[in-house]
Structures are given as structure tokens and as C-alpha cells.
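Bumping my old thread because nobody answered last time. Still need a sequence for this structure:
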């Protein structure tokens, strides 16, 4: 005969600290994460707040969690691979839980010339697929691409105009 579920021995209570430590180490293996992301992961796994806070503080103390280093790495990676502008990067950092001051400091290090070069690279790449499209539509699509990546209208228009001219195409009049 089976014992009722509430009387069955389920073994010892899990060691919340050991579970939380394993979750944190697993999450930090392979890529950096923000403190906010890690705290959310611990909460989803029902780690008590006091245990989570204590471990997150300790991991921060020893340098395993560093939101500033995470933000720098994230910005470098996303700007290089996705061509995102500072405003789009700021939104992503906010979603990752990086505080505004840290994000502002890290984004201030982004060189405007690098940002413009990333915009130009995006436009050149997209322009190849717009060969059969008239110049006005191409300019509109390119400007839209840059706007979705977070570039200002002024920079987007200047880059699109220059790159269309370099490709022997006409930019629409202002």
C-alpha cells in the first residue's frame, strides 16, 4: 500500500545556497550577465530573496558580477555585430537591468566616428539588395533601417545621401 503524499519522506530540504550558487555559476559560464538578469533567474527558481541577495553581493565582491564590464562588453558586441546606435544600446542595457548611470558612462565611450562607420556599413550592405528599387524608395528604406537601429534622423539622412551618391544613385531632395 502506498503512503499518502503528505506523509512520504521527500528527503532533506534542498540547500538553497548551494542551489543558488550552482544557478549563478551556470549562468555566468559562457557569457557575462547583469546582476538584474541573475536575480531574476534566481527568483524564477524560487531561491529565497535573502539567499539570492547575499550570493549576488558576494559574487559582485569577488568580481564575478560586474554590471559595468557587462555593459561595456554588451555595447561592443552589439555595435560590432548588429550596428546599433547609442540610443538602441541604451534601451537594451535598460532591459538588461543596467542602471542608467552605468549605461550613460559606458555609452559615452562610444566614438561617434565608429557609430557613423557602423551606419555606413549597414547602408552599404542593404544597398546591394536594393539594386532594382528606385532611388526614392531605396533612400526611404535605408533611412528606415537606420532609424530602427537607433540612429538619429540627421545622421541617417546624411549617411544615406552620401552612400547613394557613392553608389552613383540620386538621393531625393530634402
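Sorry it took so long. Here it is:
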Amino acid at each position: 500500500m502506498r503512503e499518502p503524499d503528505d506523509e512520504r519522506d521527500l528527503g532533506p530540504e534542498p540547500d538553497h545556497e548551494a542551489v543558488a550558487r550552482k544557478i549563478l555559476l551556470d549562468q555566468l559560464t559562457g557569457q557575462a550577465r547583469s546582476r538584474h538578469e541573475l536575480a531574476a533567474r534566481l527568483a524564477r527558481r524560487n531561491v529565497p530573496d535573502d539567499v539570492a541577495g547575499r550570493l549576488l553581493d558576494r559574487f559582485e565582491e569577488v568580481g564575478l558580477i560586474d554590471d559595468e564590464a557587462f555593459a561595456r562588453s554588451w555595447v561592443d558586441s552589439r555595435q560590432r555585430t548588429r550596428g546599433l546606435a547609442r540610443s538602441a544600446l541604451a534601451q537594451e542595457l535598460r532591459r538588461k537591468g543596467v542602471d542608467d548611470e552605468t549605461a550613460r558612462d559606458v555609452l559615452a565611450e562610444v566614438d561617434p566616428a565608429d557609430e557613423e562607420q557602423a551606419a555606413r556599413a549597414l547602408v552599404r550592405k542593404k544597398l546591394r539588395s536594393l539594386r532594382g528599387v528606385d532611388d526614392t524608395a531605396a533612400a526611404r528604406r535605408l533611412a528606415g533601417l537606420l532609424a530602427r537601429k537607433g540612429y538619429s534622423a540627421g545622421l541617417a539622412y546624411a549617411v544615406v545621401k552620401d552612400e547613394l551618391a557613392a553608389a552613383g544613385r540620386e538621393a531625393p531632395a530634402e
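The mean pLDDT is 88. Let me know if any region looks off to you.
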